[in-house]
Each structure stands twice: as structure tokens, then as C-alpha cells.
Amino acid sequence: MSPRISVLVPVYNARPYVRQAIESVLRQTYRDFELILLEDGSTDGTANLVHDLAAGDRRAIVLGGEHRGYVHWLNVGLHEARGEFIARMDADDICRPERFAAQVRFLDAEANCVAVGCQADRIDPDGDPIDHWDVPLDHHEIDARHLRGMGGSIIHPSVMMRRAAVVAVKGYNPTYEPAEDLDLFLRLAEIGRLANLPASLLSYRVHDRCVSFARAAEQSKWSARAVADAWARRGHAGAPPAPPERSGTPSTDELMWSWVRRAFAAGNFGTARKHALRLVRRRPLEARRWMLMAGACLGPGAGIVRRLLPMRVGPYESNQAAAARVVDCA
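The chain above was modelled as a monomer; its predicted structure follows.
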């Protein structure tokens, strides 16, 4: 008898995180699923770990072993999947135990919905909380955002989709990688409705090897192409809006700086202090890093100090940008 859900998990060099990701799937309260682990030729020992984990549960199988890219393996997984629903998951994220149950319940109740995601909480590489990731619930708002190139309006590793719908739109198009999820959701919206659940059912891990950071400029380019092609398919007049532009790959320091600010704003002061301290240790002679650290240590009291002092920490600046700012002000 076929399982109700086929869970597709691409895996590539994810040894620090993959055990936690797989175990979070295997511990779902809804248990009628198969877990298809798509091993993309890892070189860090991940493959052996994935095979060991899969051997302990009859619902799990491992496919792949050759480095072909995750879109290739996602389509292989779609071909092999037996479930009525396709659930996505990434090898560095964590599912809440009730995620599958909630999404199956929603899809069973909403026959015209072809894909449903959920809210998420961002965590850092250590698994500590950064902030909450809000996504819209309504089909029209989700699709409108996608048509502006705003990927992440359905968080890809949070989604559960009807397999028949994904097959009907011919699965993932590798042409658009690394914006293949945006392209897929645009095409799915042309045959059915999209939705997100209001509950946070995924911990989304951010780190410097995330595709959205490591391939930011490339993702921006192919998001624009996916949007333009969707406008053409739908017969919209005029030119599509330009998606948010992202140039270059952010540095590790830039990422940590953003994690400090996000974690602080969300009230996760421990996470903010941890990354602020790491930034100070990396460049102890930069005054702005000490200011950031001081604010993180003050926690809620930082707001009072900020109102009293004219200095602002602001977003991350490289040494070159800071020097240019000083010259411009001179």
C-alpha cells in the first residue's frame, strides 16, 4: 500500500545538521509517509551518516550518490515518489512533530489548494533562535508577492504539495536554479491555490552556505526570469516589476551582524550577545563592533541608551565602506 506522503530531502555536505533534520521527520505524529533522501555526492562523510540513519527506519530510502545538483535529484525523487502528497524538507532544518498532520488536515479540507506551507522560526548554525519568519496566509497575497519576485512567500522546505499538481506542471525546471522554487510556485498558482498555515512548524537554519546567501546574485537573476515568464504565460500587459536586487555573496561578518540585529529585535538576547562577541573577537579594534556588543549585553535597556546617545550602530559596513563614508563626510 502506498504511503500518503513522500518526503523529499536533498542532502549535500550537511553532516553537522542532517541527523537532527532526519530525526525530526521520523518523529512526526503523522506516520504514513516515506522518506526519500536524495544524496548529492557529499564529500564530508554525510553520505555514510545518511545511510546509517536510513537503515534504522523502514520508511526511509537513500537515492543518488553522484553530484548532479539538488534540482536534478528533486525531480528524481518526484519520479520515485508514491505518495499523494509531496512534502519538502532540507537537510539543515528541523520539523515540528505536528507539521505533517496539520498540513494533511488542511489539504484534505481544501480540495482546491495545491500547496501549503507554514510559518517558520529562523535559527542560527548552532540551533539558537534568531527571529520569526512571517509569511502570508492567503493565495492572492502569496501569488502577488511571487509575481514581484519575492521568493520565500512560501518557504520551500516547509511546503506540502499535491503530487498530481506538481506532475501536471512538469515538476522542477532546472533552468531556473537556484530560483526553481519560485518558478514552481508561480506555475502551481496557475492551476490551483496556494496557502500557508498560521502556525510555525519549521525551524529554518541560516548559515553561510545557505543557497539564499551563497548564490544570492544568481538567485536574483533567475527570479527575475521566472517572474517575466509567468507574466508572459498569464498575458499580463507591460513589464513585470523588477525583483529585489541582491548583488554578491554576503561575508560571514555581514551575516553575523544581521543575526545580532534580528535576534536583538526579536528579544533573543542570548543569540545576539553570542554573535556580537564573535564579531568583536574577529576584529577587536573596530569601535562599532564594541557598540554592537554593548547593545546586545544591555538587552532591553539598550533602547534607553539609544535614545540618550546620538551614535547609531546601523547595518554592517566593510572597512572600505566605512572609510568611504568618512571621506564623503569630510
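Residues 209 and 287 are 28 Å apart (CA to CA).
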